[in-house]
Amino acid sequence: MSAHEFVEYPHDRTDHIDLDHHPDIPASWTLAFDVVDDPDDGQRWSTWLSVERGSRGPEPRPGWVVTDEAAMDTELGILKTGKEADVFLVERGVPGDDNRRVVMAAKRYRTEEHRSFHRSAVYTEGRRTRRSRDARAMAKKTSYGRSVAAGEWAHAEFAALSRLWAAGVPVPYPVQIDGTELLMELITVDGAAAPRLAQVRPEPLLLASYYDQIRDAMGVLARSGWAHGDLSAYNILAAGDRVVVIDLPQLIDIVGNPQGTDLLLRDCRNVCSWFRARGLEVDEHDLFGELVARSFGG
Ligand SMILES: Nc1ncnc2c1ncn2[C@@H]1O[C@H](COP(=O)(O)OP(=O)(O)OP(=O)(O)O)[C@@H](O)[C@H]1O
Ligand SMILES: [Mg+2]
Fold first, then answer.
1. Who has greater pLDDT, 120 or 155?
2. Position in ligand 1 atom list of the atom nearest CA 157
3. Which residue of 46, 78, 109, 226 sits 20 to 30 Å from the alpha carbon of 281, by its own alpha carbon?
4. How far away, in angstroms, is 67 Cα from ligand 2 center?
5. Residue with the nearest Cα to atom 14 of ligand 1?
6. Proportion of the chain in helix, strand, coil states, percent, rounded to 5
7. Nearest-5° angle of CA 137, CA 117, CA 170?
8. How much is the average pLDDT of 223-248?
9. How would DSSP label each residue in 180-231?
10. Confidence (pLDDT) at 39
11. Is it the case that residue 147 has pLDDT exceeding 80?
12. What was the pLDDT predicted at 128?
């Protein structure tokens, strides 16, 4: 029997039950049961209940999040390899129950030696590492230190997504964080992963609507004092008539980070130049001015 077919009490393996002496089981019964196999390759028990406190996404939780103890995670394949992380498709579902299954994006941060790009220290200025032992390990670049660094980025992105989702910014819902793996809502169009903005050519009305949505999202960020820090048409998904902002580990404190305003201006330039190339007359300095004013409470 495969783990797929198992529907009851996966964590409570039945092979240790002493049937002859169990108080709830009449002696006349014959109990048929199978011992649950270990998960197949590419499968694991859902990690939902095993992650640390504070590692699950904000409430109210969307109804599609699968929280069942009996759920299994199945690796469906890689969606995209990035510069510092790989994004996989993971299905979490209760075997045998088609109503309790969902495909999510699993972003797995790589340890530094496996990256093709290093986030510059610009982004980490002012960020504190949670444990001093970890800070020392990161500074020494031990392999433990490198995995802490990857975990720090994953946690930073989880925290950013959680805040922004709660603030109403269009970002994927962060389901959970577990070490270097961030599980989040998979943004789809017609059942497939949504394309990046850079890959689409929206007609003029939709183009203008996309711009308004991005300006609003940047405005909500700015009002909280933040800039994305790596915003471009590559880190925005075109999900039908809406856009969704992704890739947020480096959320910037506009005032607290010495390069905050430069990074905000770069975000504005990246966004506006893409829209201008598609035919929408927008100006990065207007956008920048508006966002700076917002960050000061305007
Ligand atoms: N929640 C999601 N839903 C759909 N697609 C996603 C999601 N998250 C990431 N992707 C896809 O995976 C790609 C890489 O994700 P992301 O930008 O977060 O990682 P990255 O390591 O910074 O990658 P890159 O180096 O390409 O910027 C995205 O461009 C997008 O195509
Ligand atoms: Mg990216």
1. 155
2. 18
3. 226
4. 28
5. 82
6. 35, 20, 45
7. 95
8. 97
9. TEEEEEPPEETTEEPPBGGG----HHHHHHHHHHHHHHHHHHHHTTEE-SS-
10. 78
11. no
12. 56
- Residue 164 to residue 248: CA distance in whole angstroms: 10
Which ligand has an atom closest to residue 249 CA? 1
End-to-end CA distance of the chain: 62
Residues with Cβ within 8 Å of 66's Cβ and at least 6 positions away in sequence, in order, are 46, 48, 92, 93, 94, 100, 101, 102
Phi, psi of 105 (to 5 degrees): -95, 130
Written as one letter, the residue type at 218 is M
Per residue in 256-265, pLDDT (tens digit) is 999 999 999 9
Distance 151 CA to ligand 1 centre (A): 17
Query: Is the bond preceding residue 58 a cis peptide, omega within 30 degrees?
Result: no
Please identify, by atom number, the ligand 1 atom nearest to the C-alpha of residue 172: 1
The protein residue with its alpha carbon nearest to ligand 1, atom 19, reads 82
Task: Determine if ligand 1 sits within 6 Å of the CB of residue 85.
Answer: yes
- Do 290 and 195 meet the contact criterion of CB atoms below 8 Å apart? no
Measured CA to CA, the distance from residue 77 to residue 83 in angstroms comes to 18
Ligand nearest to the CA of 196: 1
pLDDT in tens, 9-26: 444 444 445 555 666 666
Q: Kindly list the distances between the CA atom of residue 237 and the CA atoms of 8, 146, 189, 201, 247, in Å, as whole numbers in the listed order.
A: 38, 30, 10, 13, 10
Mutate to test the pocket of ligand 1, among 79, 87, 123 (most ligand atoms within 8 A of CB): 87
The confidence score (pLDDT) of residue 112 equals 66
Q: Please state the pTM of the whole predicted model.
A: 0.82
pLDDT over threshold 90, residue 198: yes
Q: Which residue type does 25 have?
A: I
Answer yes or no: is the C-beta of 84 below 6 A from any ligand 1 atom.
yes
- Report CA(253)–ligand 2 centroid distance (Å): 19
Across the range 39-45, mean pLDDT stands at 88
Instruction: Give the integer Cα–Cα distance in Å for 176 and 208.
Output: 34
